[in-house]
Request: fold
Amino acid sequence: MSDKKVKYSKLFGSTFGNISFSAFFIAAVSGIFLAIVYDVKEPFDSLALLKITNPAGEFIRALHYWSAQIFLVFIVLHIWDHLRKSTEKKVKKGVWLRLSLSLLAVFFVMLGGFILKADADSFQAKRILTAVFNDVPLIGKYISFSLLGSENDFQLVYVHHIATATIFIWLIIIEHAKLIWPRLKTVFYFTLVILALSFFFPAPLHNPLDPIMKGPWYFLAMQELFHYFSSPLYVVVFFIFLLGMFYAIPKENDSVSSLSKKFIFAISIGYLVLIIVGYFFRGENWELKTPWNNEYFSTFTEPVSNRFENYFTDYNGKTKIIKVQGAREACQYCHSDVEGFSPAHSPAAIGCASCHLGNPFTIDKNLAHAGMIKIPGNFSDIQLTCGNENCHPDISERVPNSIMSTMSGVISVDKFTFDDSDSLDKLFNVNELNGDASDTHLKNLCASCHIGKEKTEYGEITQLSRGGGCNACHLNYDEKSLTELDSLSNNYLTRFHPSLSLNISDEHCFGCHSRSGRISTNYEGWHETQLSEEEIP
Reply:
């Protein structure tokens, strides 16, 4: 091999290796500051409070997050740059072995940082990783416990993340790059890049209301593979084989090493494709969805355009950020004195966000109201509001399929009468009416009388109301909330909230049940007549 100096790929005058080292350095420094406020005994709670009450601290957390992501990306590019230039044969065998093992350390330190958020995504990732380790014969459970600890304990992961794995990676970098500290110019340039990313894009923290759980982006391809294969051990064995192939490259002749590199490159492209599928196209319950129809992006993502204001939000420290159902919620920082709730639906019991969604991790109005559902309870969002897993999880399946939603009986009789159906026992749905004579008749007369019809405006349920999902039966306005509704404006903080309860009055029913056989009047003991009031005793 020629002794000519190898020219590595550069970005802004810095090699990929220097960039990854600089990002690693920024992540380590920002991690020291982050550790001051991080509570390993209540990790999620400490990060939620940081996100709500300390914009500067949340900005440092974003610095830590984005520097870690850049470190990972550029270390992968650096490795591929080495393989492309065929410089691996210049590296000593012992150093190459440690470099190969450091890939596992990099993966673990990144995944450890993700797990330390201790949110729903993190718990899921920890369970998956624990299951993977436990599947390893003989020693799997020992590996799992020594690296991850018990399910609800984050102490070991924390120690490995801030010390064991991080120090090991730093020592490998020193040995490989012959540098103790990264180059100042590279640190300066990429600190600016990371500052910009951190300013506009917050570090993720799973909203407890979000039913969609995803691992870190670099782990999503693994999750896809675990989904496709019956045992995660197959996937683990395959990647151990890849690591062995990577380690063997310097020992192989040129033709074999070239084939090995091409194979690893092809696997890398496939892995990247699976990451894209897992991140952009996976929705709830592992459904494939287009990104623009995916609730993961449309409902629970913080808007970038509003983040600037968040850094200047004034938290006075006097109003306590309460815990609701085990998680912090900032809604009552502004809406603390709202009245009118039934006990089961009071903010103290279920908070505000469990019904209205939005972002409970901020006191900035624009960020807090992003993705908010102003009138919850409609069937279009029932799985996220009334029917979420902490409230009435059976509702989202049962009620939309009930006869009050489908009007199946009404439709079957109407179709039978019009000779559009030969049976009274067929099942129909009002949302599936077409152009038949019976369907036209229903559309003109009865099709609005189903609780699946969207409620789009504030107001009580009356004889003129139609639909509203759960609101059709359970929404109640009192005199105070009605008076406030008349004077409501965008700049007015709601003081009196209508209640949600089992107090279902005749008014709730009469809107739909006052036609045809005049059910509502009969129920009240009334009947229609042409006699005058004076003629009736």
